[in-house]
C-alpha cells in the first residue's frame, strides 16, 4: 500500500469514527430525553387520576356542588391553584347541606415550594367549611402549616416560574376551573321567581317536572418539568410538557 493510499484509508477511518461517535451521542441523548418524558408522563398520570377519582366519588348538594376552587391573588393576577373536593371517608354528615372541613380533600400547590403538589385531608376537624373566598384561602394556608395534617407529596416536578422576570415570587403552573349547570345564580333566580324551572341551563335538557340533573365539571392543567431543578427555573423549562384533565359529577336538583 502506498503512502497516499494509507493516508486516504486513515482519513476514511477517521470520518467513520467521527460519524459513529455522533450516532452514539445522538442515541444517548434520545434515550435520556425519552426517559425524562416517561417520568414526566408518569407524574402527570398520577396527578390526573387522583383528582379525577376524588371528584368522581364526591358528594354534592344544591348549596355545595361537589368542589370549591381556591384562587390566590397577586397584584392583578389570579392563580386558581387549589381545590377542595367534598369527599368524606364514609357518609357526609349533612349531604343535603354543606361539608365539614374533615370531609374535604384538598389538592394544592405548596406556597413555599410551588413546584410541589400536595394532597391532604384534615381528619377530625368538624368545623363547617368556609363561605368566602378569603376564608377558603386562609383555611388552605392554615392546613398547609399544620404539622398534624398528613400531606401526600404527589410531585415536585410542577413547573413554577417567576411571576415576572427577575422577580422573587414563583407560582405553580397548576390551574383549576369549575363550571356548574345550572349555576348557583340561576337556581337562586328560580327560587326567587325570576326564572322558570324550564329556562335553567340543564345539561342536555335533562330535567322533569319536579327534578333535574345538575352537572358539576372541573378542568385542570399544569406543566411538568423533567426534574425538580428545572421546575424551579425562573421561566418554564423548554422541555416541560403541558397536561390536561377534567371530570364531571351529575346529581339530582329538586324544584
UniProtKB/TrEMBL annotation:
Protein name listed in UniProt: Uncharacterized protein
Q: Does the keyword Signal apply?
A: yes
Provide the leader sequence positions. Answer: 1-26
Protein keywords? Signal
Amino acid at each position: 500500500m502506498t503512502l497516499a493510499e494509507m493516508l486516504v484509508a486513515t482519513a476514511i477511518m477517521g470520518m467513520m469514527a467521527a460519524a459513529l461517535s455522533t450516532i452514539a451521542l445522538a442515541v444517548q441523548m434520545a434515550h435520556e430525553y425519552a426517559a425524562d418524558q416517561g417520568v414526566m408522563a408518569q407524574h402527570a398520570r398520577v396527578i390526573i387520576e387522583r383528582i379525577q377519582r376524588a371528584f368522581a366519588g364526591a358528594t354534592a348538594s344544591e348549596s355545595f356542588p361537589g368542589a370549591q376552587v381556591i384562587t390566590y391573588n397577586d397584584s392583578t393576577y389570579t392563580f386558581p391553584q387549589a381545590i377542595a373536593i367534598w369527599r368524606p371517608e364514609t357518609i357526609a354528615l349533612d349531604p343535603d347541606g354543606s361539608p365539614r372541613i374533615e370531609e374535604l380533600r384538598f389538592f394544592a400547590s405548596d406556597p413555599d415550594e410551588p413546584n410541589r403538589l400536595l394532597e391532604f385531608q384534615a381528619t377530625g376537624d368538624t368545623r363547617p367549611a368556609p363561605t368566602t373566598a378569603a376564608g377558603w384561602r386562609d383555611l388552605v394556608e392554615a392546613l398547609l402549616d399544620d404539622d398534624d395534617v398528613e400531606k401526600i407529596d404527589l410531585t415536585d416536578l410542577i413547573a413554577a416560574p417567576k411571576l415576572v422576570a427577575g422577580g422573587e415570587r414563583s407560582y405553580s403552573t397548576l390551574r383549576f376551573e369549575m363550571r356548574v349547570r345550572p349555576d348557583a345564580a340561576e337556581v337562586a333566580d328560580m327560587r326567587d321567581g325570576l326564572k322558570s324551572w324550564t329556562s335553567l341551563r340543564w345539561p342536555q335538557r335533562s330535567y322533569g317536572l319536579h327534578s333535574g340533573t345538575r352537572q358539576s365539571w372541573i378542568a385542570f392543567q399544569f406543566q411538568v418539568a423533567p426534574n425538580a431543578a428545572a421546575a424551579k427555573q425562573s421561566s418554564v423549562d423548554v422541555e416541560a410538557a403541558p397536561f390536561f384533565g377534567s371530570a364531571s359529577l351529575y346529581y339530582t336538583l329538586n324544584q
